[in-house]
Amino acid sequence: MNMQSLDNEAPAAIAAGLCRLTEWGLIRAQGAEAASFLQGQLTQDVQHLEAGRARLAGYCSVKGRLLATMVVWHGVGDELLLACSADLLPATLKRLSMYVMRAKCKLSDASAELPLWGAAGAAAQEALDPAHGLKVGGQTRSNGDDTVRLPDAVVNGLVVPRYLLAAVQAPALPAISEDHWRWLEVHSGVARVQAATQEQFVPQMVNLELVGGVNFQKGCYPGQEVVARSQYRGTLKRRAYVLTGTQALAPGQEIYSSLDPDQPAGMVALAGTSHSGEHAALAELKMAALEAGTLHAGAAAGPLLLPGTLPYPLLMVEGS
User: Fold this and answer.
1) Residue 123 phi/psi, 5° resolution?
2) Among 19, 152, 188, 314, which is 20 to 30 Å from 213 by CA?
3) 279-286 and 266-273 beta bridge pairing
């Protein structure tokens, strides 16, 4: 794929700027054993997370189903910060706290103290990373504010850099809507579990390991055996794909195939609409549903959905 940078002229369909992420929240894990505690809870190798790096991670049930997805990075001192969907934060914080026990780790909701912002496009890159040195997965701190370079969105071959900010006051940038930010999330191919999709997906069903959110060399965590079995036994028959349509979609909405109208072929994991009215979704689907027939939202006779393009190869990989 020929990927053009947003440093060049961007098509009118892609707005660039900043929005307050009201659908995101922030958990703080603080203490000498915060990293080792999270190491036993998340799909990611948190204990070996380097300073200046951020990683995607999943939090699974014992059945290997995602309770939440997160962006994890180092805060001040011995603290770790975990950004996740705000509608899942209270339950996630409560569940994690149940397992802290005697570990030297204090968990708290830091959302009010450090609001989260999403920034995208060339203007954001110039304001946050003028030297263009912050690679995907990189993290910087300035005056107590954190900037994380998220996986880029790729729309029609155009690469759109994206950033997550934890900051009391965000930089002066043009405003974009949160719905447009979600549209860019979809085109990054990174699923964000929300209340409507909690416990619906094993990590590989939403390509979490393909975007670096699962480490298969680390120790145990809840659901680890199920996740590993899905990876190595070749039993996975569902993946996440970008879909586009003429109507807005919603997380948890079912997708149907014209060849099997009596049962859902998949589920919308994440959906958004661009500022120019383009609707897109990242949907978990049976792989066979992409081979023939047509896809429809909500019912077999529902609005037609067309396959889009993921920004990475859809391959099974043995490791992370």
Assistant:
1) -65, -40
2) 19
3) antiparallel
- Which residues, listed in sequence order, are joined to residue 136 by a DSSP beta bridge? none
| Rounded Cα–Cα distance for residues 130 and 73 (Å) | 21
CB distance 68 to 84 below 8 Å = yes
Tokens of 103: 């570990």
DSSP state of 114: S
Task: Specify the 3-state DSSP secondary structure of 298.
Answer: coil
How many beta carbons lie within 10 A of that of residue 48, not counting itself?
13
| Structure-block tokens of residue 211 | 């975007």
Rg (CA), the chain: 19
Sort strands 295-297 and 279-286 into parallel, antiparallel or unpaired: unpaired
CB 70 within 8 A of CB 56: yes
Task: Classify domain 203-307 by CATH number.
Answer: 2.40.30.160
β-strand partners of 159: 5, 154
Q: Residue 314's pLDDT band (boundaries 50, 70, 90)? A: confident
Question: Which of 85, 37, 95 has its CA nearest to residue 62?
Answer: 95
Among 8-22, 174-188, 195-209, whose mean pLDDT is lowest? 8-22
pLDDT in tens, 230-242: 888 766 799 999 9
Looking at the DSSP bridge assignments, the partners of residue 155 are 158
- How far is it, in rounded angstroms, from Cα 192 to Cα 302? 25
**59 touches 92 (CB < 8 A):** yes
- State both tokens at 268: 């919308």
CA dihedral for 235, 152, 174, 142, sign (positive or negative): positive
Nearest residue to 258 via CA among 215, 303, 225: 303
User: d(Cα 22, Cα 3) in Å, to the nearest integer?
Assistant: 31
Main-chain dihedrals φ then ψ at residue 23, nearest 5 degrees: -90, 0
State how beta strands 158-166 and 304-307 pair. unpaired
